[in-house]
Amino acid sequence: MTIRRSGRARLVVLLIRHSLSLAVTCLVALAPAAAADALRIGLTQYPPTLNPSIDAAVAKTYVLAMTRRPFTVYDADWKLVCMLCTELPSIENRLAVPFDKPDGTRGVRLTYTIQPGATWGDGVPLTTEDVEFTWEVGRNPQSGVASAELYRRITGIEIKDAKTFTMIFDKLTFDYGAINDFEVLPAHLERAAFSDPAQYRIRTRYDTDPTNPGLYFGPYRISEVANGSFIVLTANPSWWGRKPAFPRIEIYAIENTAALEANLLSGGLDMVAGELGLSLDQAIAFEKRHGDRFAIVTKPGLSYEHVDLNFDNPILADVRVRQALLTGIDRTAISRQLFDGRQLVADGFVSPLDRVFAKDIRHYDYDPMKARALLDDAGWRVGVGGMRSDATGTRLALDFATTAGNRTRELVQQVLQAQWRQLGIDVRIRNEPARILFGQSLARRRFTMAMFAWVTSPENVPRSMLHSSEIPREANGWGGENFPGFRNPEADALIDKIEVELDESRRAAIWQRLQEIYAEQLPELPLYYRSDSFVLPKWLKGVRPTGHQYPTGLWVEDWRRGDAAAAAR
């Protein structure tokens, strides 16, 4: 009981100390000079790449949402809708046709028609040739695409005409109509970059020539890039949909969240994106001080903050150590102190808002005595200075990374470091800019522990995160997102089974068991389920948070100025 109070007292001290250290911040200079008709948006990260198929980074998704459109997507009501296609395939409308395979399983043929007016920004029509090329890139094991499993499932593509095609899938899944991650690529520009698939990741035009208008087909196209700093979007004259209200959007990456606030208050920014901006605690404090000037919108969602653990590290390969790490931190106190108790402690990777959330899975209460016992049992004994080592004298030491400059993450990280040190664990902070952490360290599995968030969609099967076939390695072009290197045959089998179970009640039981395995084995340390906080100018209308991985910018043409005075600004 005394130890529990001591841990919380230290947490409060750290909070106060960190707040004082951030009392003085510098203003980040924004460039280029802001145009009067521009909407200026702040993010805390810069995309590690602009290729839509490589790496799963929220910053990239946010930027590209305004310049492209997926074939299918979940909207703000969590309904699957068409964007680049004209009609969702279903068994009822006969655009989805199941078929029996020789092995007794079922596949499905899905027919899509591309929007008739869809054209690349250089005037070249977007056609089924681009669809075929995208499939060619995605199914090549050396290309390094993030959603490699999707492309492996597509066993063939039949072309009806320039705008209509049929995809043949080897599995009839419960979400068969969703091809959200099939990110169409411009064959006329990217084919040359793909001539050597192993080099595609570094030769893609999205990174070597990112302002080429032919790479984009949304309401905007990228017209200016300063790597690591800002991206300028200008209205795309070849866009087939409703004309957007803003001729120009400027997106700035300001990794220090205190500087992000400062630029917002100075007028250098109009808004901060909820998908990748201020954390809930910062938004709450900001609203108290400046709610008269800005509209703060908070949206609980499907994302969760966690710590990835690299199973190649022999210390972390021991489940007793992983359980001790989670048992030894007071997540309830962190939520209460930082987030006013409004971000629930997470027990797994599925949000309570998701219909497949399992309530009765293992929960890890804060219990330092139990954590110490687990470490003792794993062979890590307390020695000189209270730090632990094993029988060979190897010190229990772990590197710990997160996105540098994110004030809340760095604060949580210091609290975790302090509480783990009380257990005798030497945790060394090794933070990196987001573009390095996501683009290199995680993607190449060059990390020990890393704190970040996964953002998912409704009933999103965690194949890329947990299936052993999705571990990034050189042989698959560093594709996949199972960064810990988690291998569990039962989890693999459950993931395979979930996807093809069409009965919702039977599927729920499979989801239950998968979440139980996650809670028992801890491939990650779940911290809390997050809410996104949008800081918007009061004159901006039409921004509708989704609460899942598909960002508001997919509907950027709905954004507008809400009054005449603001329009004349």
Low-confidence stretches: 1-29, 564-569
Structural domains: how many? 2
Mean pLDDT: 91
Number of extended strands: 20
CATH superfamily of the largest domain: Periplasmic binding protein-like II
Kindly estimate the percentage of residues that lie in beta strands according to DSSP: 15-25%
* Top CATH class of the largest domain: Alpha Beta
What is the fold-level CATH name, i.e. the topology of the largest domain? D-Maltodextrin-Binding Protein, domain 2
Distance between the termini: 59 Å
Please identify the structural class as seen in this structure.
alpha+beta
How is the largest sheet built, in terms of strand order?
A: 8-9-10-1-11
Oligomer kind: single chain
- In which range does the helix fraction lie? 25-40%
Strand count, sense and barrel status of the largest sheet are: 5 strands, mixed
Number of helices: 18
Radius of gyration: 24 Å
Q: What does this protein structure show overall?
A:
The protein has 569 residues and is an alpha+beta fold. It folds into 2 domains: 248 residues, Dipeptide-binding Protein, Domain 3 (Dipeptide-binding Protein, domain 3); 254 residues, D-Maltodextrin-Binding Protein, domain 2, CATH 3.40.190.10. Strands 8-9-10-1-11 form a 5-stranded mixed beta sheet, with no helix packed on it. Strand 2 and strand 3 form a beta hairpin. The longest helix is centred in the first third of the chain and has 20 residues. The termini are far apart. The N terminus and C terminus are likely disordered.
List the helices and strands and how they pair.
Blueprint: H1 2-21, E1 38-43, H2 58-65, E2 72-74, E3 80-82, E4 96-100, E5 106-113, H3 128-139, H4 148-153, E6 154-159, E7 164-169, H5 187-193, H6 200-203, H7 205-208, E8 220-226, E9 230-235, E10 248-253, H8 257-266, E11 271-272, H9 280-290, E12 294-309, H10 319-327, H11 331-339, H12 368-377, E13 381-382, E14 388-389, E15 397-401, H13 407-421, E16 426-429, H14 434-442, E17 449-454, H15 463-466, H16 489-500, H17 504-521, E18 524-537, E19 540-541, E20 560-561, H18 564-567
Parallel strand pairs: 1-10, 1-11, 15-16, 15-17
Antiparallel strand pairs: 2-3, 4-5, 5-7, 6-7, 8-9, 9-10, 12-17, 12-18, 13-14, 19-20
Helix pairs in contact: 1-11, 1-13, 10-12, 16-17
